Amino acid sequence: FLLSHLAFVDFCYSSAITPKMMVNFVVEHNTISFHACATQLGCFLTCMITECFLLASMAYDRYVAICSPLHYSTVMSKRVCVQLVAVPYIYSFLVALFHTIITFRLTYCGPNVINHFYCDDHP
């Protein structure tokens, strides 16, 4: 259950970046608009934060399986697994939304076009 959600998040990583990158390879014009950059950054951050929390959830799952094998089915019920997956999705979306809004509310000098095919949060 947790592994399938981790695979989905990894798929979303590439889906956030690859389409614009493929267009830039064909057109040979490596620019991205401010709105596209904000969307790409928000999707990327959501996936990144979700993956970190899902890996922590998987570590907890393995810890319970190894250290308390007789209590595993009680501790890791379906309800707990759903909560361990739902909370990271919701939390990461809110954090990524907040980070993206704060980043793009700043005033920037110059054009609203970034000369790169990928919008990252590090200069």
TrEMBL record:
It is found in: Membrane. Gene3D superfamilies: Rhodopsin 7-helix transmembrane proteins. The lineage of its organism: Eukaryota, Metazoa, Chordata, Craniata, Vertebrata. The keyword rRNA processing does not apply. Residues 1-123 form the G-protein coupled receptors family 1 profile domain. The gene is OR8. It comes from the Eukaryota. GO terms for cellular component: membrane. This is Olfactory receptor family 8. It comes from Desmodus rotundus.
